[in-house]
Amino acid sequence: MKTPLKIFIIIICTLLLGHLISVVCDKGFRHYRKSFFEKMDSICSGTEYNDIIFMGNSRTERDIDPYYVDSICKTGSFNVGWSGADINNALILFKIYLQHHRAPKTVVLGYDHSIFRLNDQIAFAGVFLFYLQNAEFKNITEAYGASSRLLKLIPDLKYSFFTDNDRLNILSGWSGKDISEEIKDMKLAKYEYDYRGYLNVKNTGFIINNNTRWDTVTGIRKESEKFISELINLSIQNSFHLVFVYTPEFYGPKDKIPDFVNHEHSIIDSMVISICKKYNIPNQRFDTNEFTPEDFADMQHLNLSGAKKFSIMLGNYLKALNFKP
């Protein structure tokens, strides 16, 4: 057998073997992360109209349950928040949503200080690698050295760029588990933990001890303002109302937070207040004393009961705004 033919056969066999491995991995990963795939399918190819869209990072994704907001506002809403997203990533997901859906009546940006710390790399979600037909994902994936052009040509290579956690998800999925495994014994209705983009599987309270580390988010980047401007321009072009809400956060003793961190946070607070005043955007903070340690899963995220509490408060706030079409 001639050498070129041997090389050709080896390449074909390698590709076939890689595809077989990919099919096996797909099944495990899709099972474990099925809630995220349902969410991405809705964002990237769904057409259903939603009155309200919630966008932001994990504090939006885990803390705002559309079920309770809709029950109060008599609306249909969807949560496009994504864990690890900065303002740019959150905007990308929303722009993809707008490619397939009619613009909503209201867009709620759930923000905290960290969302303005532009990440060179989002907390990588292997789920994105299944949706590279959308050009908006190009920059996100290539930040990890994952060529979107190559992955479109040979999709089975996507697992080369998975994080260790994503690889463990494959094994968990093959064992029959999914992301909500830890709360299955609670026999909850699905809308209480996994509903229209909202996903929260934590029901433990936040325990303060000597190892507790207070928020030390730093490195806020000024250019994040341009992404807020882009969101505002989208609201003008598509005639939807913008609302900014600072999501609940657990605060410890102020003397435990370094002065330079408090300084960074004050800069962000001033920026948001200034922008909201200039464009007449409602801006409400929910990091209040109404939330206790028992409402939190950790310092930055609410547990299930806390998320229900916040979603009801948010629903009442949005209803009181009484936006007209």
How would you describe what is shown here?
The structure is a single chain. The protein has 325 residues and is an alpha/beta fold. It has one domain (3-321): SGNH hydrolase (Rossmann fold). It contains 11 helices and 7 strands. The protein has helices spanning 3-32, 34-45, 58-61, 66-73, 87-100, 138-142, 148-153, 164-174, 224-238, 259-279, 304-321; strands at residues 52-56, 77-79, 106-111, 194-195, 198-199, 241-246, 283-285. The strands form 2 sheets. It has a 5-stranded parallel β-sheet, with helices on both faces. Strands 4-5 form a two-stranded antiparallel sheet. Helix 10 (259-279) links the parallel strand 6 (241-246) and strand 7. Helix 2 packs across helix 5 (87-100) and helix 4 runs parallel beside helix 11. It is globular, with a radius of gyration of 21 Å. The model has no long low-confidence stretch (mean pLDDT 85).
